[in-house]
Amino acid sequence: MKILCKQEKLIKALNIVSRAVSPTSTLGITKGILIKTEGDMKVSLSTTDIQISITTNIEAIVNEHGGIVVSARLLTDLVRKLPPGDILIAADEKALVTIKTESSEYELQGKEESEFPRIDTEEEGKKLKIDKEILKNLIDGTAFAASTDESRGIITGVLFELKEGVLSFVALDGYRVAINRERNEVFEGEEVKAVVPAKLMREVSKILAETAGGEEEIVLDIDDRRMMIYTAETQVRVNLLEGEYIKYRDVLPKENKVTTMLERGDLLDAVERAAMLKSEGKNAFVRFSIADGAVTVSSRADEGRGRETVPAEKTGEDLEIGFDARFITDALKAIPDDMIEMHYNTSVSPCLIKPAAGDRFEYLILPVRLSTVSI
């Protein structure tokens, strides 16, 4: 194999495919990148850790066809430090890879293409087209709320649910629920349900951010085993989680006694400042004192205390309720709207955050005992 490509395009592609390289994998070949010619003017780069596989294409001048596997870490580190311009990559019959620029030359010991795991990219499931930014926003608005405890199985994933023209992404960890929805007439008539590991969905979001074209349309191909994500130059395959997802709708409150409408940004700023006061080694907790015209956010720690008032429109009774500050800030950072509604029942009942208009998102957050946030 012998190819000539631009450093700028190669490093961008390496940054994308490196997201499927596991440094802790016991299968050595999966720490490598498969570089393979795909015609006279195109080269593909592929990586896999079995759970996620990524292939992306770049323009290149192909002088000799073939394929080679090279250490992902070494190749990425080296190319990142090379100057912009042409890079010649060649592999001989002994799998020795030569990397040359106008002023430098390096040799890396590679492995035969035949040793690399086969990546199945066949289109065989239900297909769905979606705008790249919409898909990224759905992921970013939910994946953070999934459990990070691998022993908790299905709730380490994000539920992908398409029904009655509404695409819903759902994640939960036992303390909170995050729901984002996208309604589109092109979804009508389709039904899909799948659970994708949240950590893989976060990698997909980063890949989408790195691919060109903000208006690009993404094709999703989903069956009962995996989800394929196709962009113009990149294909991502992620394995699905097995099992039945928790009936999250059952935990959403059907009514509320107290509602506040307020500026999301103002509340976020107040909670972040209050969260600075926390005892060493402990989570930051905040108390909401809800009364006519305002929500007062307060906190206390060994080193001091603070309180801040956020203007709000309230219906219902006054209420005192406490929260883990991180759960509140995570939700508020994920919300794009300026105005939000927060719905409550009692000091020990979950809080539901919704848009001031519509139903594009819902965030359910369990409270903490008020004694935890005594002021």
Structural class by sheet pairing and helices = alpha+beta
If classified by CATH, what would the architecture of the largest domain be? Roll
Largest sheet entry? 12 strands, antiparallel
Radius of gyration in whole Å, from Cα? 25 Å
Q: How many domain modules?
A: 3
The largest sheet has its strands arranged as 15-12-13-14-26-25-24-19-22-21-20-23
Q: What is the CATH class of the largest domain?
A: Alpha Beta
Chain-averaged pLDDT: 92
CATH homologous superfamily (4th level) name of the largest domain: DNA Polymerase III, subunit A, domain 2
Helix content: 10-25%
Distance between the termini: 69 Å
Please outline the helices and strands.
Blueprint lengths: L1 E5 H11 L14 E6 L4 E7 L3 E8 L1 E4 L2 E5 H10 L4 E6 L4 E5 L4 E5 L1 E2 L13 E6 H9 L16 E7 L2 E7 L3 E8 L8 E6 H13 L6 E6 L3 E5 L3 E6 L18 E6 H11 L10 E7 L2 E8 L2 E12 L3 E6 H10 L4 E6 L6 E5 L5 E5 L10
Helix pairs in contact: 1-2, 3-4, 5-6
